[in-house]
Amino acid sequence: MGDYSYLPQQSKEHFKAHNKNNLDFIELNLLPSCLICFPIEEQSSRQFQDFWNWFLNKHSAETYTAYTIYYFDQAYFKDNFEEKNNSINQLLYSVTFKQQPPDFEYLNYQIHIWIAAHQATETPFETEEESYQTASVFDFLSSKSNLSTQTVTSEPMTNDPMQANILATL
C-alpha cells in the first residue's frame, strides 16, 4: 500500500492548482480527498454515517468526500475479500486526517473488523442486553489487532457463539 507521507505535499500542490485555475494539472492529478473535485452531493447511507462517526473519533479523521462514500459502499457491500480490500485502500486515500494517521495497513484491518461487526449486528436490537453484547463483540474484535501473528486454527478463539460467528466471517 502507498505512503501517506507524500499526501500533504500533493495536497498543497493540488490546492495551489485550484487557486490558479490550472485545470490541466488538476485533471492529471485528481486528489481523492479534495472536496472541490469530489463534493458530497447526496445523503450518505446509514451504514456510512455509522462508520464515519466511529472512524472520526477513533482515528483522528477530519474530512471525507464523495469518493470516500463511494468506496465505503463498495467495501461494505462486496463479499470478495480482494475487492473489499482494494475499496478500503481507496477510501483511506480520500480521507484527510488531523495528524499523521496510523499505518494504512492497520487502518485497513480496523475497517475490515468494523464492517464485519457492523454487518453482523445490523438487525434491530430486541433488548438492551443485545445492544451491550454487540458493543462487547466490537471491543473484542478491535482488541485483536495482532490476529495475523497468532496461530490460525479451525477452533474458534472464543466460547461465545456470537463472537465465534463474527470471527468466522473475517
What does this structure look like?
With 170 residues, the chain is an all-alpha fold. Helix content is 58%, strand content 3%. The protein has eight helices and two strands; from the N terminus they run H-H-H-E-H-H-E-H-H-H. The protein has a two-stranded antiparallel ribbon. It is elongated, with a radius of gyration of 18 Å.
- Total beta strand runs: 2
Beta fraction:
under 5%
Q: Name the helicity range.
A: 55-70%
Widest beta sheet: strand line-up: 1-2
Low-confidence stretches: 144-160, 162-170
Order of helices and strands: HHHEHHEHHH
Shape: elongated
Number of helices: 8
What is the oligomeric state here?
single chain
In whole angstroms, the N-to-C terminal distance is 20 Å
Which structural category fits the helices and strands?
mainly alpha
Average residue pLDDT? 74
- Biggest pleated-sheet summary: 2 strands, antiparallel
User: What integer value in Å does the Rg equal?
Assistant: 18 Å
